[in-house]
Amino acid sequence: MSDPRTNATPAAKTQFPITDRVREALAISQRGCDELLPESDWVQKLARSEATGVPLRIKLGLDPTAPDIHIGHTVVLNKMRQLQDLGHQVIFLIGDFTSMIGDPSGRNATRPPLTAEQIKANAETYYAQAKLVLDESKTEIRYNSEWSDPLGARGMIQLAAKYTVARMMERDDFTKRFAAQTPISVHEFLYPLMQGYDSVALKSDLELGGTDQKFNLLMGRHLQQEYGQEPQCILTMPLLEGLDGVEKMSKSKNNYVGISEPANSMFAKILSISDEQMWKWFKLLSFKSLAEIAALQGEVSAGRNPKEAKVLLAKELTARFHSAAAAEAAEADFNNRAKGGIPDEIPEVSLSGAPLGLAHVLKSAGLVASNSEGMRMIEQGGVRIDGTVVSDKGLKLEAGTVVVQVGKRKFARVSLA
To answer: What CATH number corresponds to the domain at position 292?
Structure first.
């Protein structure tokens, strides 16, 4: 029988049995997802893999537009890991070529393309972070410049001939920008085409992405059919709201948890999310089964303190990206702070010119943005020196070393001379 990835006809005729393992794999695939399209095709791909023992090829493309990954990115990585655990082959695709175009998804203006140097620097750190979630033994790392660079001008023209401008303009962000008379550069049309061509080059069975990537993922299906391949299925995952519970997690909005940030900071940030938001995070980020999560949610509904559940989530995620010991230490640090204690590790600041006004010390230590904010925090009782609340705005600190605290989380050990 021909390879079903290069000839769609045999796969269309052969119906493989739907076993309990296939149904279980489907349930795992659908956990937390927004859409799985077409579901019937994915069921048959799973059934074929079960019957033949040939792993499916699961593709995720990430453009290295920034050097760090936050836990919002790991929503899709978690799904990849679940599929790896079912025995399938994951392709972690670094879009070094497509980064030079710039993904127009969700943009109301042309995205500035990155330089080759920026792309290289960012890509070097991407997989080092992603492998904290993925199983390295079942992960294939690829760069789309492998096939995009050799395509050349002739190949690019032939590729562009396989899609119409009218269909390209059906894309929501292009439609809105055109209606608003906001410029759309011709090279932006190439981005979905090149992302779709990645699926052809990799012969992918399933491509994952956020809900904002649906147009690009469907392009992969279209182009695979154009090139005589069995079309991939697509699975979109919801975008994770950040710490504010409203906006999509983003470094630019400062509502993110970076997977490489210190364990204590990660733990505290996760505990800051709302009780309602916690359950979505459990579903999308935790490796607990849905049954375990449902049981935990039932306990909270019956009266268990929701903070206890949130602590379980914070410890699980902190342990994943650091270690179990680091998660335990982060919990102890958080509890110590909550009791007014001083963390083990705080910034060290040296200042000269004692005696110095307290507000000036707070600003110089980076605990407040301005002297006026420092005065306001003192007046509101939000400043402590060596654990004691200070309310005298005119206080001057003499030479020596003190621990200064603003609010619950900001500390500095200040040495004055």
So the answer is: 1.10.240
Determine contact, residues 282/313, Cβ cutoff 8 Å.
Answer: yes
Q: Are residues 353 and 319 in the same domain?
A: no
For residue 203, what are the domain limits? 8-237
Specify whether 229 is located in the same domain as 303.
no
97's tokens: 């070529």
Please report the sign of the dihedral spanned by the C-alpha atoms of residue 73, residue 74, residue 75, residue 81.
Answer: positive
More confident residue, 409 or 138: 138
Per-residue pLDDT at 49 = 97
Task: Say yes or no: 304 and 172 in one domain.
Answer: no
Decide: residue 1, CB within 10 A, 0-12 exposed, 13-18 middle, 19+ buried: exposed
Q: 253-265 burial string, b = 16+ CB within 10 Å, else e? A: eebbbbbebebbe
7: pLDDT strictly greater than 60 = no
Q: Determine, yes or no, domain membership for 175.
A: yes
Closest by Cα among 90, 184, 181 to 136: 90
Helix-then-strand count for the chain, H and E:
17, 13
E-state strands within 297-366: 348-351, 356-357
* CA contacts within 13 A on the Cβ side of 404: 28
Q: What is the pLDDT of residue 102?
A: 67
Would you say 280 is a known binding-site residue? no
Residue 365 inside a domain? The answer is: yes
Are 233 and 266 in contact, with CB atoms under 8 Å apart?
no
**Does any domain span residue 396?**
yes
> pTM score > 0.90 for this model?
no
| Same domain for 363 and 314 | no
What confidence category does residue 2 fall into, taking pLDDT thresholds of 50, 70 and 90? very low
- Residue bearing tokens 């994943």: 320
Contact 362, 406 (CB under 8 A): yes
pLDDT of residue 318: 96
Mean pLDDT on 199-206 = 97
**H/E element, 142:** strand 139-143
In DSSP terms, 342 is beta-bridged to none
Question: Is residue 237's pLDDT more than 60?
Answer: yes
Q: What average pLDDT is seen over the chain?
A: 87
